[in-house]
Amino acid sequence: MNGAQIRVVALLAAGCLARGALGDTGDHVAACYGPSTSVTLSDRPNIVLNQNSPNPFAEQTTITYKIPNTAKTAKIIFHDAHGALMKVVDITSSRSRSDNENEGIPQCSGEGQMFVFGDDLSDGLYTYALVIDEKTVDSKQMIKARSRSR
């Protein structure tokens, strides 16, 4: 065999070997490099602070949230437009306490809702934030506006 024939045989052999390794099924070739798995890790989908509804509101609005079962403490903090703290609401639940009361650490998990009454609240912009285990995880703005009579 001459050099050109050896190269053709080598290319054909390489093609045959690659064909099996690439998973040739006859009508298409699928590249298979070995087992692989894609994993996305995040706790964000487990933590949700929804926008209050209705927004703007005149007298009452509702805030819904979702907290992961790994949270030890949770609270919603309200601030006025100037950043001044107005109220801290502890939403930690004691439903998940340990059987032994001495070891029980309040935990919170699941979905919840909060009804906010603003009858005596001045019109304007307010901020509320979800704080889990002493870390602010999300915040939203809400608008208090007087209802317009027709």
Walk me through what this model shows.
By secondary structure, the protein is mainly beta. It has two domains: 1-36; 44-144, Immunoglobulin-like. 13% of the residues lie in helices and 33% in strands. The chain has one helix and seven strands; from the N terminus they run αβββββββ. The chain has one helix at 3-21, and strands at residues 48-49, 60-67, 74-79, 85-90, 110-117, 124-132, 135-144. Strands 4-3-6-7 form a four-stranded antiparallel β-sheet, with no helix packed on it. A three-stranded antiparallel β-sheet has the order 1-2-5, with no helix packed on it. Strand 6 (124-132) and strand 7 form a beta hairpin. The termini are far apart.
SSE layout and pairings?
Blueprint: H1 3-21, E1 48-49, E2 60-67, E3 74-79, E4 85-90, E5 110-117, E6 124-132, E7 135-144
Antiparallel strand pairs: 1-2, 2-5, 3-4, 3-6, 6-7
Radius of gyration from the CA trace? 30 Å
State the helicity in percent bands: 10-25%
Listing every helix as H and every strand as E from the N terminus to the C terminus, the arrangement reads HEEEEEEE
The largest sheet, given as strand count, sense and whether it forms a barrel, is:
4 strands, antiparallel
Distinctive features:
single chain; mainly beta; Immunoglobulin-like; 4-stranded antiparallel sheet
